Amino acid sequence: MPDGSFWISDEYGPYLLQVTSRGRELARVSLFGGDRPLPAVLAKRRPNCGLEGLALLPDGHTLAGIMQCPLEKPSARVPGIRGTRPTRLLLYDTRSGASRQYIHLLDHPTHLSSEIAALGGDRFLVIERDVAWPGPPGAFQRIHAVDLRRATDVTGDPGSAGGVLV
Known about the structure:
Elements: E1 6-10, E2 15-19, E3 25-29, E4 51-56, E5 62-67, E6 86-93, E7 99-105, E8 112-118, E9 123-129, E10 141-147
Antiparallel strand pairs: 1-2, 2-3, 4-5, 5-6, 6-7, 8-9, 9-10
C-alpha cells in the first residue's frame, strides 16, 4: 500500500488482514460482521480453499482476490457443486468495503487457482494448477489472462449467505 502496509489473505476464514511493514495488524476483514465485511457467500468455500491469491489494483485501494476452488452448495435445495469449474474472482474496496464478484472458469473441476496478478483495473493473470503440482513433469500449470471489461458482476446481495446462483 502507499503507506508501506500490505494486505494478506487467509484462505481458511477467508480473511483479509492489513499489517504494517513490521507485521502489526491494522485491520481484519472477514465474513463475520464489522463495518466492511466480505460477501457472506464466501463462507461456502471448501476448507483450505479460500482466497488463495491477492493483488492490489493501480487505484491503490482495491484488492483483487481469487478463490482457490469453486464454492460449495449455495443452498439446501441445490446439490453439492464439487466437480464444477466456476470459482470466484473478488474485487474489494478497502476504503468502503464495497465488493464485486466475477466468475472464473477453471479448465478442469479438479484444478485450483493459486495466484492472481493485476495488470490494470480490470485485467489480471491467474495461475491455475492441478492438485499434483508441484509434482512430476507434465503436471498441469497454466496462466490465464482474465479481462473483466465485459464480465457480469455476480455479487447480488453481499449479505446473502446463498449469493447468486450461477
